[in-house]
Amino acid sequence: MKASQREAVGNGPSRVLRRDGKIPAILYGPKTESIKLAIDRLELEPIIKSGAVAQTLLKLKIEGVDSVRKVMIKEMQKHPVSRSVLHLDLYEVSMDQKIKVMVPVVTTGKSAGVEVGGMLQLIRRELEVFCLPDQIPENITIDITVLEIGDSFHVEDLPLEGAVEIPADTNFTILTILSPTAEEEEEVEGEEEEGEEEGEEGAEAAEEPAAE
Q1: For residue 145, which of 48, 66, 109, 128 is within the disulfide window of CB 3.0 to 4.6 Å?
Q2: Tally of CB atoms within 10 A around 43
Q3: Which of 57, 86, 59 is nearest to 72 (CA)?
Q4: Which long-range contacts (CB under 8 A, 24 or more apart) does 195-201 make?
Q5: Residues 90, 72: contact at Cβ < 8 Å?
Q6: 3 state DSSP class of 140
Q7: Which 8-state DSSP code applies to residue 148?
């Protein structure tokens, strides 16, 4: 990804950059002095379309600087309505130091419990992992084939490869297989709550005096 250095800061200059098809950004890191940058929107589009923005290690070439920086997108600010990118925070990494990064959870196979009417409940859609920048997994894959109704899969059940770690203090649940009864009870409770609300509204309306 190519970038150029910028001097002006603030909302006004940032709006001008965006009108010109560029995105204001800042580069920083534990051993890096902050540098204000401008990045062509076209440079960023393939990265966004890949769907793995937080897990992608990028080679950053700054105009006028000989060295190529290894960076990751730490934060991406977007417009609340148009969802266009407004600003980027880029973090320069050291290839010999582990970093923390969020990785999506995906499942493979069809659970034995789901086959007989149960429902898969994915509690954690992302997991924080601790690894070297060039060993970031694209995703955490869990085979749910043998899971029966009532079974759960916990973080300590993960078969991690290489030097990848999960920096978790507790053995939390990642996913579980719910029984059909539990699903029906949740639906009934929801219907009862709606009925109670409608009843209360009707009672309040009955207590109001008729308009003269």
Answers
A1: 109
A2: 16
A3: 57
A4: none
A5: yes
A6: strand
A7: P
Q: From CA 38, how far away is CA 2, in angstroms rounded?
A: 9
One-letter amino acid of 116: V
Q: Residue 207 phi/psi, 5° resolution?
A: -80, -20
pTM equals 0.70
β-partners of residue 27 are 35, 90
21 φ/ψ angles, rounded to the nearest 5 degrees: 80, 20
Helix or strand holding residue 48 (H, E): helix 41-50
DSSP-assigned letters across all residues of the chain: -EEEE----SHHHHHHHHHTTEEEEEEEETTEEEEEEEEEHHHHHHHHHHT-GGG--EEEEETT--SEEEEEEEEEEE-TTT--EEEEEEEE--TTS-EEEEEEEEEES--HHHHTT-EEEES-SEEEEEE-GGG--S-EEEE-TTPPTT-EEEGGG----TT-B---SS--EEEEEE-HHHHHHHHHHHHHHHHHHHHHHHHHHHHSPPP-
CB 12 within 8 A of CB 24: no
Assign 212 a pLDDT band (cuts: 50, 70, 90): very low
Residue 210 confidence (pLDDT): 47
- The predicted-structure confidence for 37-87, as pLDDT tens digits, reads as follows 999 999 888 888 877 787 889 999 999 888 899 999 999 999 899 888 999
Residue 6 carries which DSSP code? -
Between 185 and 175, where is the model more confident?
175
